[in-house]
UniProtKB/TrEMBL annotation:
<dbReference type="GO" id="GO:0016887">
    <property type="term" value="F:ATP hydrolysis activity"/>
</dbReference>
<keyword id="KW-0813">Transport</keyword>
<keyword id="KW-0547">Nucleotide-binding</keyword>
<dbReference type="GO" id="GO:0005524">
    <property type="term" value="F:ATP binding"/>
</dbReference>
<dbReference type="InterPro" id="IPR027417">
    <property type="entry name" value="P-loop_NTPase"/>
</dbReference>
<protein>
    <submittedName>
        <fullName>Abc transporteratp-binding protein</fullName>
    </submittedName>
</protein>
<dbReference type="Pfam" id="PF00005">
    <property type="entry name" value="ABC_tran"/>
</dbReference>
<keyword id="KW-0067">ATP-binding</keyword>
<dbReference type="InterPro" id="IPR003593">
    <property type="entry name" value="AAA+_ATPase"/>
</dbReference>
<dbReference type="InterPro" id="IPR050763">
    <property type="entry name" value="ABC_transporter_ATP-binding"/>
</dbReference>
<dbReference type="InterPro" id="IPR003439">
    <property type="entry name" value="ABC_transporter-like_ATP-bd"/>
</dbReference>
<feature type="domain" description="ABC transporter">
    <location>
        <begin position="3"/>
        <end position="236"/>
    </location>
</feature>
<comment type="similarity">
    <text>Belongs to the ABC transporter superfamily.</text>
</comment>
Length: 318
């Protein structure tokens, strides 16, 4: 296994006696040649986990192994783009950045230049090799940041919000580049993003964290198929009253589409038969299975977790 995080916890001291538990008993793996999306609402514990993976902060409990070795000895196998394009020097050109970041990783100047230039050519940016990074577009800067993170040819790449602030075309280019890199080099990628469409487009596996604990893990496409089989569009002859809507919400996660239609994803504990029985009391005109996207799946998992409902965390066997 490329990366294996085992029972990671992180407690931060607070001004009162009780430490704050930012990450609790988090375990996951990133295999070679796969993109794993690490998703969670603000403050869920993603950055804290990634900082532990990079050895920037020490876990309170748990271990991290990269290629079977403790993480402190394996940072050479890891590349990271943590704060978007801000982790490259804007006054320097892409080539100068490659030399600088390569030098920090012990890569000779000429080799860093050659590798960096090859990446720029692959990604269509060779004409920009000598311009200051600040004169490039945000999308181009992001590509240069990814190239810098790859300059020592790591086996694992950690990408924090790689498409943040990019327009649709630039975001799609970054997605294509990530998939291309994985196909060409069998890199393993751990990616955080709040953009569910990006995660759905490029992640082989999804991992969701909420309030410091893992609340869902699964293979992206099979998880979406699984949830689609538990999600229904319900149409009614007349708009539902508020108590009826509240009652319906008890069966799972509900999203109104129009006054006479709602989408509902059943919670693990509520079988369809129970819902059908209740619907018999309402002016129902149609029940249709619904195709679910990752944004809906994410919302469902997080809402169920925050309601304290039982969530079936591991969806890998579906
Ligand atoms: N150094 C610290 N000291 C105390 N609390 C911290 C520290 N770093 C993070 N936290 C807390 O830990 C929790 C998790 O933060 P973290 O930055 O890991 O979340 P995140 O999932 O990356 O969120 P976002 O999506 O908003 O970036 C938050 O409540 C945060 O306030």
């Amino acid at each position: 296994m490329l990366l294996s995080a085992n029972h990671l916890s992180k407690k931060f001291p607070t001004s009162n006696q009780q430490p704050f538990v930012a990450v609790q008993d988090v375990s996951f793996t990133v295999p070679t040649g796969r993109v794993v999306a690490f998703l969670g609402p603000n403050g869920a514990g993603k950055t804290t986990t990634i900082k532990m993976l990079l050895g920037l902060i020490t876990p309170t409990h748990g271990t991290i192994q990269v290629l079977g070795h403790p993480v402190a000895r394996t940072l050479g196998a890891v590349g990271a783009v943590l704060e978007g394009s801000r982790n490259i020097y804007w006054r320097l050109s892409p080539l100068e950045n490659f030399e600088y970041w390569g030098g920090l990783r012990g890569i000779p100047r000429k080799i860093a230049q050659k590798r960096g230039m090859a990446y720029l050519t692959t990604f269509g940016l060779d004409a920009k090799a000598d311009q200051p990074v600040r004169a490039l577009s945000r999308g181009m800067q992001q590509i240069v940041a990814i190239c810098c993170a790859l300059i020592h040819q790591p086996q694992l790449l950690l990408l924090d919000e790689p498409t943040l602030g990019l327009d649709l075309t630039a975001a799609e280019q970054i997605q294509t580049i990530i998939r291309q890199l994985v196909a060409d080099t069998h890199l393993g990628v751990l990616l955080t993003t709040h953009d569910m469409s990006v995660a759905q487009a490029i992640a082989d596996d999804v991992l969701m964290i909420d309030q410091g604990t893992i609340v869902f893990r699964g293979e992206t496409q099979s998880a979406l198929r699984g949830f689609s089989s538990e999600t229904y569009a319900l149409s009614f002859a007349k708009p539902l009253m508020s108590p009826e809507l509240t009652q319906l919400g008890r069966w799972g996660t509900m999203a109104p589409v129009s006054p006479t239609q709602v989408i509902i994803t059943l919670a693990d504990t509520h079988p369809l038969s129970e819902l059908l029985e209740y619907l018999g009391h309402l002016p129902i005109t149609a029940i249709e299975k619904q195709q679910v996207d990752l944004a809906a799946l994410f919302k469902h998992v997080i809402r169920q977790h925050q309601k304290g409902a039982t969530v079936h965390v591991d969806r890998r066997e579906q």
